[in-house]
């Protein structure tokens, strides 16, 4: 039951982020290396939108619902904001995990994703799942990025 509650709160945090959050994005005031989009809610749930460890940045999964092309654009736009807040771009992404409830639609919408990477593609896994936390969600993407030396 605790896991279901935690998952529900994480989804609420993700959706709040999608709709704009009441607190400004930025580094955690409490946990070094932790980046929040909505610190109050994320602290209540117990996670960070991104965590820096050494020269690596781990970005939590971002979700979207609706038509797959629009959902892909929404998710990658949000992820781009988090990368930019750390002085990174999609060229710095080394690993991408994509979870989808409709692999055929994702494959058809793949061209929406390509411009974000500008021909600098990461290692990637695309995984078809029966459903994501909320039934209307069609995609979830998490990233790992590497900071260039000296950053």
TrEMBL record:
<comment type="similarity">
    <text>Belongs to the RutC family.</text>
</comment>
<dbReference type="InterPro" id="IPR035959">
    <property type="entry name" value="RutC-like_sf"/>
</dbReference>
<dbReference type="Pfam" id="PF01042">
    <property type="entry name" value="Ribonuc_L-PSP"/>
</dbReference>
<dbReference type="GO" id="GO:0019239">
    <property type="term" value="F:deaminase activity"/>
</dbReference>
<keyword id="KW-0732">Signal</keyword>
<protein>
    <submittedName>
        <fullName>RidA family protein</fullName>
    </submittedName>
</protein>
<feature type="signal peptide">
    <location>
        <begin position="1"/>
        <end position="18"/>
    </location>
</feature>
<dbReference type="GO" id="GO:0005829">
    <property type="term" value="C:cytosol"/>
</dbReference>
<dbReference type="InterPro" id="IPR006175">
    <property type="entry name" value="YjgF/YER057c/UK114"/>
</dbReference>
């Amino acid at each position: 039951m605790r896991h279901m509650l935690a998952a529900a709160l994480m989804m609420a945090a993700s959706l709040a982020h999608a709709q704009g959050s009441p607190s400004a994005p930025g580094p955690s005031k409490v946990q070094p290396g932790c980046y929040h989009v909505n610190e109050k809610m994320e602290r209540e749930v117990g996670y960070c939108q991104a965590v820096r460890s050494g020269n690596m940045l781990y970005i939590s999964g971002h979700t979207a619902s609706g038509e797959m092309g629009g959902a892909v654009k929404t998710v990658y736009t949000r992820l781009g904001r988090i990368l930019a807040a750390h002085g990174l771009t999609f060229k710095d992404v080394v690993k991408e995990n994509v979870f989808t409830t409709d692999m055929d639609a994702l494959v058809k919408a793949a061209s929406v994703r390509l411009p974000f990477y500008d021909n600098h593609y990461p290692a990637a896994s695309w995984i078809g799942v029966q459903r994501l936390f909320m039934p209307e969600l069609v995609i979830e993407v998490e990233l790992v990025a590497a900071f260039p030396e000296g950053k």
